[in-house]
Design brief:
By secondary structure, the protein is α/β, with parallel strands linked by helices. The protein is 25% helix and 21% strand. The chain contains ten helices and 16 strands. The chain has helices at residues 7-26, 54-63, 74-77, 87-99, 128-141, 168-185, 209-218, 264-273, 303-320, 354-366, and strands at 44-49, 67-73, 102-108, 148-151, 190-193, 228-233, 281-287, 324-330, 380-392, 413-420, 428-435, 443-446, 449-450, 464-471, 479-486, 504-512. It has an eight-stranded parallel sheet. Strands 9-16-11-14 form a four-stranded antiparallel sheet. A four-stranded antiparallel sheet has the order 10-15-12-13. Strand 6 (228-233), helix 8 and strand 7 form a beta-alpha-beta unit. Helix 2 (54-63) runs parallel beside helix 4 (87-99), helix 6 crosses helix 7 and helix 7 (209-218) packs parallel to helix 8 (264-273). The chain starts with 6 loop residues before the first helix and ends in a 5-residue tail after the last strand.
Length: 517
Amino acid sequence: MNGSRSPVLLLLLSGFIAALLFVRAQNPAFLQMGATATERKSLRVGVHMIRPDADVLSRAAELGANAIVLLFPWREIEPTQGYFFWQMADEAVAGAAYYGLELIVRLDQPPEWALIETTKVGEPPVDIDAYERFVRNVAGRYRGKVAGYIIWNEPNLALEWNDRPPDPPGYAALLQAGHRGVRAGDPAAKVISAGLAPTNTNNDHAMDDRRFLEELYRHGADRNFDVLAAHAYGFGRPPDAPFQEMNEVNTEEDGLEGLVFQRVVALRSIMERNGDAHKPVYITEMGWTVEPVAHSAWQEVTPDQQADYIIQALELAEAGWPWLELAIVWNLGGETHPEWRGYSLLTEEGTPRPAYRVLQEWLADRRSSETHAQPTSPRHVQIMAKDVIIHLGDKDLPEPWVPLYKGLRRSPRWEGVFYLDEPGSEDWLLTLRIMQSNFWSNRIWINGYLLPEPMPIEDFSRTWVMHSWRVPAEFLQPGLNRIAVTIAHAPPLIQDRRFTYDDLQITDVQLSRAPFD
C-alpha cells in the first residue's frame, strides 16, 4: 500500500459515522453502554449518625443530605442469641424513608455471646456463622429499604477486632460471610467493605490501611464487595494538602506523613492495580475536629476552618475523583463521646456549628427543584411490629415473658416514634396487643397528650388481647410523632421488694384511619 486512502474505504467510514450519530441521537444512552466507575457522576453527600435518634435524623433532612450512614449495633439488636429486638432499627428505616434519605447501614459491635477466643490467623474473633445469620436477618427484614451494608468497621485496628492484632485474612473471611448474608437477605443491596482507619502504624495495635487493603486483595476479598469504603480525615490539614504516593507500602511506622484527606487516592490506586477500577468508592467517614482529645491536639481546627475544609474537600473530590460516588461527613451531631463530638456538625445541645450552616447552603445551591419524596399518610401505620415485644415492669419472668425493656432492672416506660405526612381532621384508631395489664393507671400518651381511656384490666392468664383507643387528630402532627406507654406502681398493700410495678407486655402497635361505627 502506498498510503493513499481508498475512495471506497472513505465512503464506508463516512457511512458508519453517520449511522453512529443517528443512533446516538435516537438513543443518548447508546454510547454509555459499558460505563465504569471512572466516568463522572454527581457526587452524593450525606452524614454519619452514631445512633438513629429521631430528632437528629430530622436534622439530616433539614441539612439537605442525600444519604445517611447508621450503625445497627449487633449487640443491641440480638442481645442474646436468637432473640432479636428490632424497634430501634425499624424506626430508623421508617424515618429514612419518610425523609427520602438513602440509607446505608453499618453492621458491627458484636454481643458478648458471639465473641470467640482465638489466636489463629485468618479466623475472626466472632462466631462467623452467627454474624452471617445476623446480616441475613437484617437484610431480609429491610429488603428494598436499605441501599447498602457496610461489613464491620476499621478492622485494621485491634480496638475494632476484639483487641486482637489486625488480621487481613480474618477480615476477608468475615467479609465473605457478610457478603453471603446480604445476598441471601436482599440481593439488590450493595455490599460495602469496612472503612479502614488511616494510619502509618504497623504493630499489634494497628496496620497501615494501604498494607491492609493490599493483603485483602491477596486473599481474594475483591469477590465479596461491590463498593470500597474509605475513611478520609483531614488530621488538621487543609483538604488540598498533597499526598505523596509511595511505590511500596511501608512496613515500618511512618509518623504523620501522608495523613491527609487525599490519602484516599492511595487506596484507589491499589484498587486499580488489582483490577477493580470498575468499582466505585464511598467515603463513609470524613471530617475535621474542633475539639480534639489531648493526644490529638495537633489535629484541632477552628469552627470556621472545619466548615471551609468540608466544602473544599467535597469540591475537590467532585471535580477530580469521578470514581467517588458518595461522601459521608462524620458526624451529624448530638454526641457526647470525647473522641467524636469535636467532629460533629451539631453541638451536644443541637446547636448548629458553622459547618452545618455552610454545608446546608452548599447542598441547597446544587440541589434540583425536586424535593425529598415524602409519602402521603397511608390509612394504616405499623408503629411497632408484631415480632417486637416490650416488657414493662420490674421482674424477670419465665416465658412467654421476654426480658425487661432495655435490659433495665425497672422499666416503667416505653417510647416509640412514627411518621405522618398530614394527620387530617378526623380521629384515628390506635390498636395494640396487651398481656396482663392489671391496674387502671397504666396509660398511653401521644405527643405528650394523655389518651382519656386507661388500659383495661385483664386476668393473669398470660394471653394476648387486642385493645383500641380513639386518637383525636389534634393529638397528631405532620412528620415525627411520639407514643409512650407508662405503667403504675402496685398498690402499697401488695408492694414488696419484688413487686413494685405492674408487669405487662405490649406488641403489634398500629394506627389507622379505619372508620368508626
